[in-house]
Amino acid sequence: MPGVPKGLAEHRLRVAPKVKPVKEHLQRSAVQKRKAISEEVARLLAAEFIREIYHSEWLANVFMVPKKDDSLRMCIDFKHINRACPKDHFPLPRIDQIVDSTAGCERLSFLDAYSGYHQIRLYGPDEIKTSFITPFGCFCYVTMPFGLKNAGATFMRMIQKCLLTQISRNVEPYMDDIVVKSRKGSDLLADLAETFANLRRYDIKLNPSKSDAAFAELKALLSTQLVLAAPISKEPLLLYIAATGKVVSTMLNGSGAGVVLVSPRGDKLRYVLQIHFDSSNNEAEYEALLYGLHMAISLGVRHLMVYGDSDLVVNQVMKEWDVRSPAMTGYCNAVRKLEKKFEGLELHHIP
């Protein structure tokens, strides 16, 4: 991997001259860990992230950390060399501020730098100071590894130089992750193109495998049919209705209403409908109720319990409140006509 230009970023350790080097002895490893170490060393050598060395004043041991999938990750214990290095006070981003800055954005795109830290080369004379010992020999890093003091500051400095004109406007970097934020959905492609152009200018590589995995998951969700079960006779279904002025990614104009049918076994059918006329919240709630009742009738449902968040609609249908508005009278009469097609229909208010 060629890495980013040295003029953009190069990591220096700046070890205090009076510090005495520490050379650790090889620690024993179990067979399983030895195999994992061998595979990781081979991978790092092939990628030219490390090189073999024969003499070094600094030597650190490796230790294996289990991942979520029970595989092992090889890490280097750089505690001695880190103690000898002064702290880089470059400010690192605050995750809460990044989250706040994305509020109101219609589109967010998440990018991951491929082997992020390894895209930055180490300062030549400092390479030997990152030496580590394994059962298969001694090696040192050519690129900046994880675990080194100030590695995060060096990486963030590089990213800020690369995306200087975009940060806070349409990009928020956090270590080796980059969030491209688009205030409007129509700006998404332009924002991504600008980001890719800046990253390409400095030869910063992204990790396509994570994007591929997300795309495959989305494709599977879109192409997999829902498992629907026929309703059991005399078994009541639950109908949840709600109205809102906006339904995310479902409509462009008008009010929206959501309907969820739930069987006693937990099977769910979700529907969202768009109302193409100016309507009050109660009118939208009635529209959702009527749609849900028609849907339940088409499924052969005979017993139905309805839960809605409109106190007025629930109490008018259940005859607890009088219907005084002509518009509401028409809706209420339509519901009572459909009510006759059920053996049991109950409405309950959800605060």
TrEMBL record:
Q: What GO molecular function terms would the record report?
A: nucleic acid binding; RNA-DNA hybrid ribonuclease activity
CDD domains xref list: RNase_HI_like (cd09279), RT_LTR (cd01647)
Domain Reverse transcriptase, residue spans: 65-214
* A Pfam family the protein falls into: RVT_3
Q: List each copy of the RNase H type-1 domain by range.
A: 253-351
Q: Under which name does UniProt file this protein? A: Uncharacterized protein
In which organism is this protein found? Triticum aestivum (Wheat)
